[in-house]
Amino acid sequence: MLGDQITQRNNHDLSENEERFSLAMRGANDGLWDWNLETDEVYYSPRWINMLGYEENELGATIDTWKELVHPDDHDFVLEKVQEYIDGRADSFEVEMRMAHKDGHYLFILSRGFLAHHKFEDRPYRLVGTHVDITERKISEQFVIETSNILEMIATGEPAGVIYDAIALLYESRHPGLRCSMLILVGNKLMHGGAPSLPKEYCDAVNGLENGPSVGSCGTSTYTGKSVFVEDIATDPKWEKIKHFALPHGLRCCWSEPIKDASDKVLGAFGMYYNHPALPNEKEVNDLKSAARLAAIIMNRDNSDKELHQHRQNLENLVSKRTLELEEAKSLAEQANQAKSVFLANMSHELRTPLNAIVGFSDVLAEKIFGPFNNEKQEEYINNIHDSGLHLLNLINDVLDLSAIEADKLEIIEEKIDLGEAVGASLLLVQSEAENGGIELVNKIEDRQWFVRADARRIKQILINILSNAVKFTNDGGSVTISSLNGHDGSISLAISDTGIGRRANDLAHVMEPFEQLNPEDIMSQGGIGLGLPLTKQLVEAQGASLFIESEPNTGTTVQVTFPADKVI
């Protein structure tokens, strides 16, 4: 009798708790499941069933239903997590898994559960839990990762076709059933760029079509420079001429966004297809525009590479022509041609990657594809932009300075400056480079003050050039030391000495010529273009000072800058 009363009370309490829980879950819009461990019967709530696209009477109330719906790759892992919790080897049950939707795609599900024990027995008899659809969150996380990978592919120079396919697959993964294409406008024709999920027969059929107001969605988009949304290919007049290409492959709607460069010039079109008539929702419109912006980065990169190649070819042709015209100066012309070729090769190498990084990353950040700047990946991109831009600026400034000197147009603004302060500031700017190379910087004049009349900006440029060059050609574990000397004639000298590779005496005059280095391999290995020392020497002489170099192979180099007495204050 007492046992029956206890059982009835337990059932009543359980019923009340279940009712409260059911009401709470209904309000939370989560799916509820209740697994009877003794009978293997499972209750699946209507929301649980509807979440997977089914009606209530379409799924059996057994654990086998769940097993059939879980992705095969997740099946064993999830079962192990369940068993660990039931056996007491885990304090809680929470797992992410993929489950099949009725229409064939998979949803990402967050499952949580808790055990119910018999009141007077330490034995679980039910496992009750919830299902939460986290598909959107997982897709967004993967989208950020894949977008980052695409940007890296752009910056490292991967072929355009490979990147076009990656972009198409990226946006297809966000919208089940979507198929994407990339078309490049060449002259007045639309050429195939990438469409990994579209039939080859269809891609071949539209490849080479002329753009125009009645040439499908993409042809109209490139012609007008505006977005084009076609709900039904079968009935829309813009597809009348070419619908026979699309309809046999089940393509029923097509939305297109023009791909443009920074000057609003149309470069191509990005298209989205479904196998049913439809107009895009807000998310699809935003993704269409985002995909077009990514594609624009690639097309701009490739166009820049083509232009650079053409300019280089033109320059090479011009050099050849002048060489033929100046037979009497053949030897000199060949030397000049070699120097220019090396210079152009290096500039191409040094400028291409920073420019691609600057254009790509800054464009993406400006369009806020990642949202606000609140994660490490975005911070990394910002640093890449800064570093690449600074590197490019330094190269261009050197070229411009050399041109100004040769044209006798370099402006020198003299003022009273403290050489000690200038040295300290310059050392700070090369400190990071030295630390990365394992090189010690030694300042032996930090407690001294020497005042001279000179251009402060140019003095800093001179010191940085010499220090950077010393660090560049000093091996790991070496040192760079800056010291001073008072001359008997009232002059002041700064000496920068390194323990680097050094130079032979007969090589020193050679390296002081613009665009000259000991061998072409130095350009790629040390990152220089042969302007550092020649430019520094001319900047020193423009200040009324002098530069002297002393070097010994495998021992090191000393560069001495001397300010005459009339410059000393």
Name of the level-1 CATH class of the largest domain:
Alpha Beta
Structural class: alpha+beta
- Which band does the percent of strand residues land in? 15-25%
What sort of overall outline do the alpha carbons produce when their principal axes are compared?
flat
User: What is the assigned CATH homologous superfamily of the largest domain?
Assistant: Histidine kinase-like ATPase, C-terminal domain
Task: Describe the protein in words.
- This protein has 569 residues and is α+β, with helices and mostly antiparallel strands.
- It has four domains: 2-133, PAS domain (Beta-Lactamase, 2-Layer Sandwich); 139-149 and 158-296, GAF domain (Beta-Lactamase, 2-Layer Sandwich), CATH 3.30.450.40; 301-406, Signal transduction histidine kinase, dimerisation/phosphotransfer (DHp) domain (Helix Hairpins, Orthogonal Bundle); 415-567, Histidine kinase-like ATPase, C-terminal domain (Heat Shock Protein 90).
- 50% of the residues lie in helices and 21% in strands.
- The protein has 17 helices and 18 strands.
- The strands form four sheets. A six-stranded antiparallel β-sheet has the order 8-7-6-11-10-9.
- A hairpin with a 5-residue loop joins strand 3 (93-100) and strand 4.
- Helix 10 runs antiparallel to helix 11 (330-366) and helix 11 (330-366) packs antiparallel against helix 12 (376-406).
- The longest helix has 44 residues, at 282-325.
What is this entry, summarized?
The chain has helices spanning 2-28, 46-51, 63-69, 72-86, 135-155, 160-174, 200-206, 216-224, 243-246, 282-325, 330-366, 376-406, 419-436, 456-472, 505-511, 521-526, 532-542; strands at 31-36, 42-44, 93-100, 106-117, 124-133, 179-186, 189-194, 209-210, 228-230, 253-260, 266-274, 415-418, 440-443, 451-454, 479-486, 492-498, 546-552, 556-563.
